[in-house]
Amino acid sequence: MNISLKKAALLVALLFIFVHGGGVASAQSGPSLLEQRLCRTWKFDYLTQDGKTVKADKSLADFVIIISLDHTIKQGMYPDGLIGGKWKVDEKEMILDINDETTSQQYRMKIFSVTTDELVLQDPAAASPSFLHYRAE
Question: Radius of gyration of the chain from Cα atoms?
Fold first, then answer.
């Protein structure tokens, strides 16, 4: 075997190991960084709209969104008014889709920002931009 054939065989072997042995395959099998950041309990904190801030009053003080890694979601008034559903995220468009199993409604929210401590969502269909701010529980 000449040197160029050895190099080609080595390259094919390395490519096979990378694709099947943990490189691309394992990177796609686990949750993405965005999914990891989304998956926690979020409590409604305040709303901003047209430069005004509205803090959560008593009626919304217990509103939570619980996003789980298994793509299930619970949202509503904690602990008695939680409604289950499923979620998915479009990372390219930064869109969170929530399918409510009780009402069969689908909610589409733009992920404006997400950190370990805060989630900010925007309703892209709203006439006036409003931002829902949640804090991590």
Answer: 21
Question: In the numeric block, which tokens belong to residue 10?
Answer: 């080595």
DSSP E strand stretches across 2-105: 41-49, 52-55, 63-67, 72-77, 81-90, 95-100
CA separation, residue 107 to residues 21, 98, 137 (Å) = 38, 5, 22
Question: What is the enclosing helix (H) or strand (E) of 9?
Answer: helix 3-20
pLDDT digits (tens, 9 = 90+) for 90-126: 999 999 999 999 888 998 999 999 999 999 999 888 8
Residue type, 103: T
Note the pLDDT tens digit of each residue in 68-88. Answer: 999 999 999 887 889 999 999
CA distances from 136 to 10, 11, 45, 66, 69 (A): 48, 46, 10, 10, 16
